[in-house]
Structures are given as C-alpha cells and as structure tokens.
Amino acid sequence: MTDKEKIKLYEEDGILGAYYALNRKLNEITKLLNNNDLTQVDMSNKDDGTLERVMKFFNSVGDINDAMKKLKIDNALTGDEDKDRAKRKPLIEELVKWM
Could you give phi then psi for residue 36, rounded to 5 degrees? Predict the structure, then answer.
C-alpha cells in the first residue's frame, strides 16, 4: 500500500462507509432470499444444504439490522448517503482539531 493510499484511507469516513455497505449487503441478501423458492427445496435429500444456507441468511438479517441501527443512532445518520457525506468530516480532519 502506498503512502497516498494510506492517507486516502484515513480521509474516508469508516462509520459512514460501514453503514451504507451494510445497507447494500442487506439489499443483496433480500434479493437472494426473494430469488429462492423454498417450496422447491428437496427436503428428502439430506445432502442438499439449500435450506441451511437460506436460514443463515435469515439469521444474519437481524444482526445486520442491529448493527445498522446502532451506527445510525450513535452517529446521527439520516439514511440519505449524499446528505450524510456532505455533513460529515473525514476522520483526519477531526483528529487534527485535537492536536
């Protein structure tokens, strides 16, 4: 990693990035779940792990939601990525204020 890449990393807002990345992942999981018809799962085939994989996705939705809720509340995020990016300052700028 170059020095410029390292600096860029510190200029980005990790909290904001994490919140919206989780939101995108939640949308992907939703799409995946909607694309799977559980009535078509062969329940007699013990080697078919489709149902187990789908259930893991179901369980992850609550965990992702809890993390997103905490990030949103703790950091006063609006749910509008453009608005949030406009009002937030990069971590490096916040740290410089304390020096």
Answer: -110, 120
